[in-house]
Amino acid sequence: MITAAALVPHPPLLLRELGGGHDGVARLRTAALDAVRAVVGGADRVVLVGPADECATWDAAAVVDVRRFGTTGERPSGEPLPLSLAVGVRLLAEAGWTGPVDRVGVAWDSTDEELEALAGRLGAAPGRTAVVLLGDGSARRGEQAPGHLDQRAFAFDDGLADALAAGDAGALAGLDVVLAAELMVLGRSTLRLLGLLALREGQAPRAALTHRDDPHGVSYLVATWRFPALTGER
Partner of 144 at 20 to 30 A CA spacing, among 38, 78, 107, 126? Predict the structure, then answer.
């Protein structure tokens, strides 16, 4: 059963080596680590879910290859993880998690059927499962943003923030995928999956939006959803 879920962004700078002597995402790093720690506490296993080029799973032998994202040094041996899962693995390590981890990639434009099937598999797993989902909001919030400025991004991200803060599973599950793609929302599949996971549990989560920022025109949102009836919380 799924007891809690966290949404965190996955900018490359969360891989600390890429920042050099200055941690340019210190506040985001703190918020992401706090969210991860909050949801993995008491869990039997963690599932990392991040957007990738295709739906696939990676085993424990897959590596975080920081060199792929702009630094130097020796390249580790092993199959490299996609950026989203690499950031997730690093955050789990920094949060102190040493238990079992499943690493799942979902395609950027996964179908409803694919996401519903994944939600069913995750929810049916034995034990207490914490899900850490990686995903950014829009990347079109300014002239210097990766996708340049699109005024629609502001209302879209406001809607995401409101849904995450309120635990509105239906709003996330029913995300406008066409608009999300046009706004370069890299978390569009994982956001939808979060909504589907909560709908499957059949109860409103205890939700908190703990961080929101848009450095360089990219929307970063950090949120936690907990399911009190499953965890015994009041």
Answer: 107
Kindly list the domain boundaries of the chain, sorted by start residue. 2-231
For domain 2-231, the CATH class is: alpha beta
Sign of CA dihedral 9, 55, 37, 96: negative
| C-alpha to C-alpha distance for 161 and 227, rounded to whole angstroms | 19
Q: Are 229 and 203 in contact (CB under 8 A)?
A: yes
Partners of 145 in the beta sheet? none
Per-residue pLDDT tens for 18-43? 656 667 788 999 999 999 999 999 99
pLDDT in tens, 112-152: 999 999 999 999 988 999 999 999 999 999 999 999 999 99
Cα(first)–Cα(last) distance of the chain, in Å? 18
Task: Answer yes or no: are the C-beta atoms of 106 and 190 closer than 8 Å.
Answer: yes
